[in-house]
Amino acid sequence: MDRNKQAFLDYLTFEKQYADDTILSYEEDLCHFSEFLRQQKMHSFSQVTYQDIRSFLKMMYEKQYAKKTIARHISTLRSFFKYLLQEEQITVNPMTLISNPKQDKKLPNYLNDTEIETILGLPDLKDPFGQRDALILELLYASGIRVSELVSIQLKHIKYTERNIKICGKGNKERYVLYGRQCAKLLELYLQDGRKKLLHQKPTSYLFLNKDGNQLSTAGVRYIINKLLKQSGLKLHVSPHTLRHTFATHLLNNGADLKSVQELLGHENLSTTQIYTHVSNERLRSVYLHTHPRAHEK
């Protein structure tokens, strides 16, 4: 089984060119499934049947795994057994009749206008780290990019005159995102001052650097945001993805069309972007209830 797993992971790495974090998730899910099979005294994926998959999923439900986690395992196993079938390692795909669990619809967490202005004003612009952190927050909100996309930005990707950045998103799909005047000012300040001080004369082309002058990691960005919030005393839960949600919600609330927001976010399917319309609809409902004279019973 280990040989099949490794061959699949190599396929994802070299042929599909998936991101490291994605491959790690696949590996963890497959290890979890393999351990379940060993407990069932099974030593080959060719032995796995539809009922075995059902038993594995039943075990996850009984242990109260989140629906999102279960759905991810199903997606992993679906890709894995499809690969094994293509490679003629199995003759029947046990995942054919397996469907995803119905997900609970969860509205994305986002910040209002006052909260986002407060967050963006936290870093100290007199300090090189503060300049970097201010640009991180501003760029996440200004462009709606993912944190993995943020830390992958290189200087050559930035077009200063057009104020856009080439982003390599999920599945190595490229797109251009825009940024505004305030972000441009912070970018210039950071490049002229903060980044030079963080660089330590190291030959790196990445935009965002850590204290050692190396590429900043996604974990580093999350740490920075959490540290800023803790120092400020604000009772808000903010992650890099919160700023992405805020970007999309504010665009829609101010009249942007869904298709444009989809392209800016880098969503492959419009259905992924439609979750934000629920947020906008909730805002419209609130506006209506608070402003229309006949919205409330007297």
What is the alpha-carbon Rg in Å? 23 Å
From the structure provided, what is the oligomeric state, counting identical versus distinct chains? single chain
**How much β-strand is present in the residues?**
under 5%
So how many helices? 13
Low-pLDDT segments, ≥5 res: none
What is the count of β-strands? 3
Q: What would the average pLDDT be, to the nearest integer?
A: 90
Principal-axis shape equals globular
Q: End-to-end span in angstroms?
A: 69 Å
Sequence-ordered SSE layout with sheet pairings:
Layout: H1 2-15, H2 20-39, H3 50-62, H4 67-86, H5 113-120, H6 128-143, H7 147-151, E1 158-159, E2 164-168, E3 174-178, H8 181-199, H9 218-232, H10 240-253, H11 258-265, H12 270-273, H13 275-291
Antiparallel strand pairs: 1-2, 2-3
Helix pairs in contact: 1-2, 2-4, 6-8, 6-10, 10-13
Q: Keywords for this structure?
A:
58% helix, three-stranded antiparallel beta sheet, 298 residues
Task: Please summarize what this structure is.
The chain has 298 residues and is mostly helical. Helices cover 58% and strands 4% of the residues.
